[in-house]
Amino acid sequence: MKTSEQTIRLTTAQAIVRYLANQYIATNGQEVRLCGGGFGIFGHGNVTCLGEALNNYKTELPLYRGQNEQSMGFAAAAYAKQHLRQRFMFCTASAGPGTTNLLTSAALAHANRLPMLMLCGDTFLTRLPDPVLQQLEHFGNPTLGVNDAFKAVTRYWDRITHPAQVIQSLPNALATLLDPADCGPAFIGLPQDVQGWVYDFPQSFFAKKVHRVRRISPDELEIQEAAELLKSAKCPMIIAGGGVQYSGAVAELTSFAEQFDIPVVETIAGRANMLATHPLNIGPIGVTGSNSANAIAEKADVILAVGTRLQDFTTGSWTAFAPSARFISINAARHDAGKHQSLPVVGDAKVSLSQLLTQCNDYKTPESWTKLSQEERKNWNAYVQKNVEPDNGSNSYAQAIGTINALCDPRDRVIAAAGGLPAEVAANWRTLSTGTVDIEFGFSCMGYEIAGGWGARIAQAESEPDADTIVFVGDGSYLLMNSDIYSSVLSQKKMIIITLDNGGFAVINKLQNNTGNESFNNLLSDCPTIQNPFAVDFEAHAASMGAIAETVETTKELGEAFARAKASDKTYVICMKVDAYEGWTKEGHTWWEVGTPHISDDPNVTKAHKEWESSRDKQRRGV
C-alpha cells in the first residue's frame, strides 16, 4: 500500500471495502454505518482479493458466513426492511453458480423495493485464461456472461473493468439504495483479475460521508388538486401501504385519519401501520383481506392510496372498488403514483400528508360513513376471534397464529412469506405495536421465512435486542430453505420458528380444487410418483442444526412451548401438524384473477371457469 498526501494505492477490492466502511447515515438522532456488514460465501471468484480486503475490516463490516447464496440475499432484504431501508447489507458470492444463486433474492428485493448490494465474482477481463472454471461461454458475444442476467432484477448494474471506475460506480450504487423512488438492489460485477489490480485513489474518496434519505416534496398544484377531490368525498377511504413505514409517516397517517375521521385499510406490506385497536383501522384489504375493509372499499367514492404500488392482492385484481371511485396516490415513485388514472401526488408520504392536511382543514368525513366502517370492523373482529379460538375443529393456521398473538410481546417481529401463511397472518394477526409485521408478498417467495428471520434478527438485535423474531413457516417452505437455522445458532441470533406441517403445498391444492381441478402433485398424498409418503421429523432436523426443537399436538401445547421458547436464549423451533383441507380463513376474500381453462373434458373445470369469470365485469380498466 503506497500513500501520498493526495492518493493511496489500493486494489479494486480494497477500495470498495474501505469506501463502504466510511459511509454513514444520520438516523434516529445518531450516525451509524450505512452498511451493516455483509453475508458471504467465498469461492475462487471472490476469496483471494475481496476476501483479503474484507478480512481487514472484520469489526467495521462484520461478515456473516452464509449457507446458501439465495438465503443470504433473503437475509439482506429482511435486514433492510427491519431498518426501514435506512441501512443495508452486501452479499458477496463467487463467479458462476454462486452468483446466479442470488438471482431469486435480487428479484425479491426488486419487487419489494429493498436495498441490497451484491459484490459478485466475474470472469477475467483479459480473457487470457478463458474459458475458466464455471464460465458460461457465448460464442458470438464474449462480453456476455451469467452476471448480465441481473440486469432484469436490479435497479443498478455495473461491471468494474478498471479500478478507477469504483470512484463513480460505488456512489451511484449507494444513491440507488437510498433513493425512495428508485430503491432496490444494486449489482456490481468484479472480474477476478480486476479485483486485484491497483490504482492510486484520491484519499478524499474515503473520507467519512454522512448520508440522509431524500424527502421529495410534492408539487403544490398536485396537493391542491388532491385536497379538492378529497373534500368532495362522501365516503373516503385511505389505503396505507408499506411506504408509510419507510417514510416514517405512521404518526402523520394516524393524525391525518383522526383529523378527518377517515377509515384506514392496510395492504399486506402495510400491515402494522396502525394498531388493531385503533377505531379507524378497518382491517386488511384485498384477496387476503377482511370483510370489513373490502366492504367499505366497494362503497368508497374517493380513495387515498399512500405508499402502495396497488398490487393485485390489494386491489382484488381491480375488482375491489366501485367503478366510479376516484384515486389519489401519494408515492415517492412516479410510476406508482399514476397507476389506474390516479390523481398523482409524487412525493414523500410524511411531507405530503402534512401538506395535504393543511389544505383539507375544513373537511370532515360524514359521521354515518365512519360509523358504518367501524361497525364492519367490529363484525370482522368477532369473526377473527372465533376463527383463532383453540380447539375450534382441527388444528389450523389461524389457531396457531391466534395462540402466538395472544402470548407474544408487543414489540416482537412476525415474519411470513409464500404459501397459505401470508393470507392467514394478514387476516388474523392483530397488531400490538406498529412496524412489527413482515409478510413478504411482493414476490411471494418460498424460502424467505427462515432466512429472512435471520436477517431481521441481526437488525433487530442492533435496535431492539429484548424483542423476539417470530417466523411462521409451512412444511413446503421449510424443506425448500432451512439452513439458516444453523446460521442463527452459529451467530447467536435467536429466532422462534413455528413450523406448521400440512403435508405439502396445501394452499395451491386449495386453489387447484377451487378451480374445479382434482388434487394433483401438491399434497404428498396426491403425487403419482410417490408411493409411500411419510411425514418429515422437523423436530429432529432442526435439532440436528443446533436449535432447541419440540413437537406439539394441540394449540394448548403450542402456547406452553412458546413460553419456553421466549425464555430461551437460543433459536427454538416448534412443530405442529395442521389440517390441509379444513380451518382455512373462509371470509375476507376478494376476487383474484387467475388463468383458468376455457374448455375442458372435466365438467367441474368448465363450471368453475364460468363461475370464476362471472366476477370479471367488476374489473376496472386502467393502466
UniProtKB/TrEMBL annotation:
Pfam families in alphabetical order: TPP_enzyme_C (PF02775), TPP_enzyme_M (PF00205), TPP_enzyme_N (PF02776)
Sequence ranges assigned to domain Thiamine pyrophosphate enzyme TPP-binding in this UniProt record: 430-574
Keyword entries, A-Z: Hydrolase, Thiamine pyrophosphate
Domain named Thiamine pyrophosphate enzyme central: residues: 223-356
Molecular functions per Gene Ontology: acetolactate synthase activity; flavin adenine dinucleotide binding; hydrolase activity, acting on acid carbon-carbon bonds, in ketonic substances; magnesium ion binding; thiamine pyrophosphate binding
GO biological process, one term: L-valine biosynthetic process
Basic and acidic residues bias: start-end ranges: 608-617
Region (Disordered) residue spans: 599-623
PROSITE patterns: TPP_ENZYMES (PS00187)
Domain Thiamine pyrophosphate enzyme N-terminal TPP-binding as annotated: residue spans: 39-133
Record has Hydrolase as a keyword: yes
An example Gene Ontology CC term for this record: acetolactate synthase complex
InterPro entries found in the cross-reference section: DHS-like_NAD/FAD-binding_dom, Myo_inos_IolD, THDP-binding, Thiamin_PyroP_enz_cen_dom, Thiamin_PyroP_enz_TPP-bd_dom, TPP-bd_CS, TPP_enz, TPP_enzyme_TPP-bd
NCBIfam families: myo_inos_iolD (TIGR04377)
PANTHER family (alphabetical): 3D-(3,5_4)-TRIHYDROXYCYCLOHEXANE-1,2-DIONE HYDROLASE, THIAMINE PYROPHOSPHATE ENZYMES
Protein family (similarity comment): Belongs to the TPP enzyme family.
Protein's UniProt name: 3D-(3,5/4)-trihydroxycyclohexane-1,2-dione hydrolase
Organism per entry: Kiloniella spongiae
